[in-house]
Amino acid sequence: MQSTEKSNHPSLTALYCRLSRDDGTEGDSNSISNQKRMLKKYAKENGFANTRFYIDDGYTGTNFNRPGFQKLLEDIELGYIGTIIVKDMSRLGRDYLTVGYYTDTYFPEHEVRFIAVNDCVDSADGENELAPFRNVMNEMYARDISRKVRSAHRIRGNSGEPLSQPPYGYMKAAENKKRWILDPDAAPIVRRIFQMALEGKGNETIARILEEERVLNPMAYWHSKGLKRAGRTDQPNPYKWSKTTIASILRQQEYCGDIINFKTYSKSFKNKKRLANAEENWVIFRNVHEPIVERDLFEQVQKLTGKTKRRAPKKENAEKNMFCDLLYCADCGKKLWFHTNANNKSIHYFSCSNYKSDYRGTCQTRHYIRADAVEQVVQMEMQRMAAFLLEDEDAFVDLLTEKSNRDIHLETQRLLREIRTATDRCNTVISLHEKLYEDNACGKVSDDWYMEQAHRYEVERMELKDKIRKAQEELKQLESAQTGRDHFVGAIRRFLEMQTLTPALLRELIDHIDVYETEGKGKNRTQRLTIHFRFVDVIDLPKQVQSDNLKLDLRQGVAVEYISSPVSA
């Protein structure tokens, strides 16, 4: 039975279930549904309330980077979990060292009770002498299964059976899943990609053409067909092709009708990461299925792409521009990327990473700005503030205080109200939960209704606790605003001493800079920059410290006047 202390504690009881494909050989006893049924029954019979399932279906026990288990660890760190119950030790994992770390160190440090039902393990009863031996046996089981799977994998691969999923352009035959046939929708796209490559079009150009014609990229296409494939699923634009996808398609010999096995391998059963195998270790079976492209065409494309001059990799110690990661597009909010002019290496500039024309994004304009212009604008703005501080320090500090105090007061009041409301509701939920538990114990409500409502109350309580925690963290940040203003003034003083910008000083002073698109034509072009300083955001300096805007001649007949933060009247 659960201890009295735990019964009165509102913490969560985690019911953890795991099943991998390898466990399927053990029959239905390990199925997720049977594990859930068994753990739910055990929790009910032994007085464990506030239960929540954490499930990993199809994940190996030798790797602990599983979504359900990681979510369980997150909730432990937040203090939500009081007890963990599993069917047996193997459900927690099959790596005896890692399992031992969690059961002997991690769970006790976080005051989490651990129970493995079938193995009669309960941390409340003290150490279990047999648990380490069970962990070793569980790992030996995983090692043996891995050896058998690798052996079967090797036999299948050497017999010509494809070991991977069919690439984009092929699909599995309905009557024989081991045979690839042409996908009538995707195969013509693959042929067209090879034809465009043969015509001399680059990968980026091909990708742009496919996007403009609204052709679904491979991942989006597979998902539209209800097929699961590994890779990114959060691409907001399903028609956006990348040049790396095009390059990968153009390199795949499978489009000639070949099967290539053992292109990748893993080092051990504990490390599932796939590594590229040397080509001499590949096993190639020619003309197994119908080709999408003729072999001569494929080889011609390989010669063309092989002659493509690749850009030299950036030096590891190459110095980044100090404004990298500080400049943002004022229209779309995306970061500006740093570039070097291809024809004149002395010219460095930034442009929007989401620009429609260059990067097939959504931003309509480029937001081009020279790196030296940004540096001079910021330097000028810093000199203005330093002059104001030097001329009248009290007025400068008063300006910063007036700027932030009102906003801080309003935000503090809002956060306090939010914490008070969430705390009251949290106490109400706990009371309702306790009453529900009593009604269930007295037979006033059914077990199913109790489990459903208890779960709903627990989810709401956890959300409220998280909301309170975040609001309290924001309050602490507001409390440090005064210290932040002092640091800001100190950084201005250091600039006074050095009269130059350094990356460290820049990041100490500036949070980010919004860059607007240029307006006007010729020598009458203007471009606005809004500098958001740390702790105090945008500063409106008095008119008496105003100086002329920076104006630069970019090339013959073209000049830009850069307008920094607004100046108050």
Brief summary of the model shown:
By secondary structure, the protein is of the alpha/beta class. 45% of the residues lie in helices and 15% in strands.
- Assembly classification: single chain
General form: flat
The helix fraction, in percent, is 40-55%
* Range of strand content: 5-15%
Q: In this structure, how is the largest beta sheet organized?
A: 5 strands, mixed
Using only C-alpha atoms, the radius of gyration works out to 32 Å
What does this structure look like?
By secondary structure, the chain is an alpha/beta fold. It has 17 helices and 19 strands. The strands form six sheets. A five-stranded mixed beta sheet has the order 2-1-3-4-5, with helices on both faces. A hairpin with a 7-residue loop joins strand 6 and strand 7. The longest helix is centred in the C-terminal third of the chain and has 49 residues, at 393-441.
Question: What descriptors fit this protein?
Answer:
17 helices; 569 residues; 5-stranded mixed sheet; 15% strand; Hect, E3 ligase catalytic domain fold; disordered N terminus; Rossmann fold; single chain; alpha/beta
Write the layout of secondary structure elements.
Layout: H1 4-8, E1 12-19, H2 32-45, E2 51-57, H3 67-77, E3 81-86, H4 89-92, H5 96-109, E4 113-116, E5 121-122, H6 131-158, E6 170-172, E7 180-182, H7 187-198, H8 203-212, H9 218-224, H10 243-251, E8 259-261, E9 264-265, E10 275-276, E11 283-285, H11 295-306, E12 327-329, E13 336-340, E14 348-352, H12 356-359, E15 369-370, H13 371-391, H14 393-441, H15 447-479, H16 481-498, H17 503-509, E16 510-515, E17 525-533, E18 550-555, E19 558-563
Parallel strand pairs: 1-2, 1-3, 3-4, 12-16, 17-19
Antiparallel strand pairs: 4-5, 6-7, 8-11, 9-10, 13-14, 14-15, 16-17, 18-19
